[in-house]
Every structure is written in C-alpha cells, then in structure tokens.
Amino acid sequence: MKRVLVLNGPNLSRLGSREPEVYGTLGLEDLRNELEKAGSGFDIDLRQTDSEAELISWIHEAIDSQTPVILNPAAFTHYSYALRDAAALIQQAGQILVEVHISNPYSREQFRHRSVISAVATGVIAGFGFESYLLALELIRRRIG
Ligand code: DQA
C-alpha cells in the first residue's frame, strides 16, 4: 500500500486541550482515525514533533522514499526558513506537499498572516478543521492514488 506522511509541527500534540475554541476538542489520534476511515487507499503515517530538526529529517525521508506529504508546520509556518528550504526540495523533486492548517491563519493575529512555506508547497488548505487534512488526502489520492 502506498504511504502518505502526515507531519505535524510544534504544540499539535496538545490538540484536544489546546485552545479548543480555535482547534476543536479532538486530538491527533482522532485525526489519525478520521484519515484512516477516509479509505483513501493510502497507509497513513501520522507524526508530530516539536523539533524543527526532526521535522526537516522527515521531509528528507519523504524525498528519498518519494512519499507524498501533508504538512501542518504549526508555528514554524511563519518563520522557519530551514523548513521552507526542505519543502523547496520536495518541489524540486516534483513531489507533492500540501500545507494544511486547522484554523484560518488569515482571520487571526497579524503574525499568522505570513507563511514562509506556501510559496514552495504544491498548495494550501486552511480553515476547515480536520477536514483540511481530509481534503489534502483526497487531492493526493486524485493526483497519484
Ligand atoms: C496552525 C496555525 C498556526 O498559526 C499555529 O501556530 C498552529 C496551528 C493551524 O493548524 O491552524 O500551531 O498551523
């Protein structure tokens, strides 16, 4: 079965209790279940880290294994040039990386209005709760499933 990497950045391990009015009350295990339930035909490899280095190493792994990526860079979205450079390598390899956000960053604080990742992502889906990830998975299925 083909694999898809669903990578989540800092503080997303706290989903469920973190700002529930913004991110909802479900956790990462619920997200994993929803993605598996979607029956995309992909093996869902969902991971979370608070470490920029680890996230970058997972992007490198995606390139080497030609695995499509759904990435919620969390706060790294707004300032991590290192993560952006890693995402650019995916673009250069002609592979898919969909940037996702649970909330709509453009309806929030000013510092969230800028993504340093978006310009090198294949596309961006934001503001649909966990459905952002489900939509990203559907797009990947349509393109390479
Ligand atoms: C987020 C939005 C970011 O601004 C924030 O830092 C997050 C989560 C989202 O999924 O809505 O941690 O990426």
Topology:
Elements: E1 3-8, H1 20-23, H2 28-37, E2 43-48, H3 52-65, E3 69-72, H4 81-92, E4 97-101, E5 123-126, H5 131-144
Parallel strand pairs: 1-2, 1-3, 3-4, 4-5
Helix pairs in contact: 3-4
The protein binds 1,3,4-trihydroxy-5-OXO-cyclohexanecarboxylic acid (DQA).
Description:
It is a single chain. By secondary structure, the chain is α/β, with parallel strands linked by helices. The chain has a single domain (2-144), classed as 3-Layer(aba) Sandwich (Rossmann fold), CATH 3.40.50. Helix content is 37%, strand content 17%. It contains five helices and five strands. The chain has helices at residues 20-23, 28-37, 52-65, 81-92, 131-144, and strands at residues 3-8, 43-48, 69-72, 97-101, 123-126. Strands 2-1-3-4-5 form a five-stranded parallel β-sheet, sandwiched between helices. Strand 3, helix 4 and strand 4 form a beta-alpha-beta unit. Helix 3 packs parallel to helix 4. The longest helix is centred in the middle third of the chain and has 14 residues, at 52-65. The mean pLDDT is 96. It binds 1,3,4-trihydroxy-5-OXO-cyclohexanecarboxylic acid. The site of 1,3,4-trihydroxy-5-OXO-cyclohexanecarboxylic acid has 10 residues, from loops.
What are its keywords?
145 residues, alpha/beta, Rossmann fold, five-stranded parallel beta sheet, 5 helices, 5 strands, globular, binds 1,3,4-trihydroxy-5-OXO-cyclohexanecarboxylic acid
